């Protein structure tokens, strides 16, 4: 079951599994940052580049929003990267977040949701699991 979810997640996110940074096939090796980009009126902004930069390594992960303004970025992290800082940015806004998860839980997806609205960014971790589930059902 876990393999099927990963294939769904990686295929839906448009990842090429041959790239080493994307070979994060286990929950304990990835942290998902997802969210929406909306304009000031609440309309989705497709084609917006979203970058997630690791504070420890300065490695940059990039994705573009889809037609509904949704983006999904999979960052290669491990248990010892707990509390690392990530910068999530678009051209108009940026937000520094802290990687949070329960390292004892090796089944639940690890990640957070960061939304951008009219040039402002807001982390909404409480919506992460539901947003990821909806995304995977597509």
Average predicted local confidence, pLDDT: 87
CA radius of gyration is 14 Å
Low-confidence stretches: 1-8, 10-23
Classified in CATH, the superfamily is: Immunoglobulins
Largest sheet: 4 strands, mixed
Number of structural units classed as domains: 1
Q: Report the total helices.
A: 2
What does this structure look like?
With 138 residues, this protein is of the alpha+beta class. The protein has one domain (2-136): Immunoglobulins (Immunoglobulin-like), CATH 2.60.40.10. It has two helices and eight strands. It has helices spanning 2-12, 128-136, and strands at residues 31-38, 49-54, 60-64, 70-75, 85-89, 94-98, 111-117, 120-123. The strands form two sheets. The protein has a four-stranded mixed beta sheet. The chain is globular, with a radius of gyration of 14 Å. The two termini are 17 Å apart. Mean pLDDT is 87; it is low at 1-8 and 10-23.
């Amino acid at each position: 079951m876990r393999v099927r979810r990963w294939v769904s997640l990686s295929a839906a996110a448009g990842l090429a599994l041959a790239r080493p940074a994307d070979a994060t096939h286990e929950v304990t090796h990835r942290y998902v940052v997802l969210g929406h980009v909306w304009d000031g009126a609440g309309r989705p902004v497709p084609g917006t580049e979203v970058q997630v930069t690791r504070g420890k390594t300065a490695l940059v992960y990039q994705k573009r929003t889809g037609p509904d303004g949704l983006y999904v970025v999979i960052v290669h992290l491990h248990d010892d990267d707990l509390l690392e800082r990530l910068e999530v940015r678009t051209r108009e806004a940026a937000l520094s977040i802290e990687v949070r998860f329960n390292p004892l839980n090796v089944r639940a997806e690890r990640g957070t949701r960061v939304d951008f609205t009219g040039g402002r960014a807001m982390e909404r971790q409480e919506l992460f699991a539901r947003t990821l589930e909806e995304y995977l059902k597509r």
